[in-house]
Write a structure and sequence with these properties.
- The chain has 240 residues and is of the alpha/beta class.
- It contains eight helices and seven strands, in the order βααβαβαβαβαβαβα.
- Strands 3-2-1-4-6-5-7 form a seven-stranded mixed β-sheet, sandwiched between helices.
- The structure holds guanosine-5'-diphosphate and magnesium ion (MG).
Length: 240
């Protein structure tokens, strides 16, 4: 029976957060849980907290999220842990800093369903809001995304975007080695270079950040660039 609870797909929203007390509340508030549930997706929201020393966890719990604490450092490590505990058939992701349009999830999810996708990533350059990305980051992202496209022949315009929708069932197929910021390019490369997976990129809004940025522009930019080459030449090994 289609309408039995067991047959319903479920959605897990996984959000990494480290000292995001300024942004976590609004990030969670804009998730249209009711609308998603009406679409037939019971929602669980998981905040993977990197031992925040501010009120991030408290606020996340107040808003009804499940907080998972991951003391091991890194953006990629946080996602690996979030994906391990997520129960949803579909997983959606994004930062805890108000930049990604979680309010648009129903639209993205409908597209994901309609197209029968396995993986969907948002291209922030499609609808960049004024002031959302510095000129330095635009250039950096262009260099990184071009490098990725040349090395992997994958048609990804925004290799560093942090909003994805994916079927949980594809995760065992993806070789996710990075614990750091390169996790973002790695998950896309893994999804886009598997011929039998249906992966797409669509334009999404990208909004002004609140709170302090965790990315170290030059250090992480360089790391992310090197990671493309490591990955291309088979030298990326699991970091944890
Ligand atoms: N749990 C956890 N979250 C992290 C860590 N580093 C970054 N984040 C979170 O990952 C997201 C992306 O980081 P952010 O500073 O926004 O990077 P940017 O969007 O690339 O500039 C934010 O929600 C951060 O709070 C970490 O070491 N652990
Ligand atoms: Mg961010």
């Amino acid at each position: 029976m289609n309408d039995s609870p067991a047959a319903k797909p479920r959605l897990s929203i996984v959000i990494p957060a480290m000292n995001e007390e300024e942004g976590i509340g609004e990030t969670l508030d804009v998730i249209p849980v009711k609308e998603l549930e009406e679409m037939g997706y019971p929602v669980e929201v998981i905040v993977v907290d990197g031992e925040s020393v501010d009120r991030t966890r408290e606020i996340a719990r107040e808003k009804g999220a499940r907080v998972v604490i991951e003391p091991r450092k890194g953006y990629g490590r946080a996602y690996k842990t979030g994906f391990e505990v997520a129960q949803g058939d579909v997983i959606a992701t994004g930062d805890a800093d108000t930049t990604y349009p979680f309010d648009k999830l129903p639209e993205y999810l409908r597209y994901f369903e309609r197209e029968g996708l396995d993986f969907l990533t948002g291209n922030r350059f499609g609808k960049l809001q004024p002031g959302a990305m510095s000129a330095k980051h635009k250039v950096g992202n262009f260099v990184l995304s071009t490098t990725g496209r040349v090395l992997f022949l994958a048609n990804i315009k925004d290799s560093q975007s942090g909003m994805w929708l994916l079927k949980r069932s594809i995760l065992p197929r993806l070789k996710l080695t990075s614990d750091g910021m390169p996790f973002s390019e790695e998950i896309k490369l893994e999804a886009f270079t598997k011929g039998d997976l249906k992966s797409r990129e669509i334009p999404i809004e990208y909004r002004v950040r609140v709170g302090e940025v965790k990315l170290a522009s030059w250090k992480d930019g360089w790391r992310n660039l090197k990671f493309f080459f490591k990955k291309r030449f088979g030298m990326a090994e699991p970091e944890s």
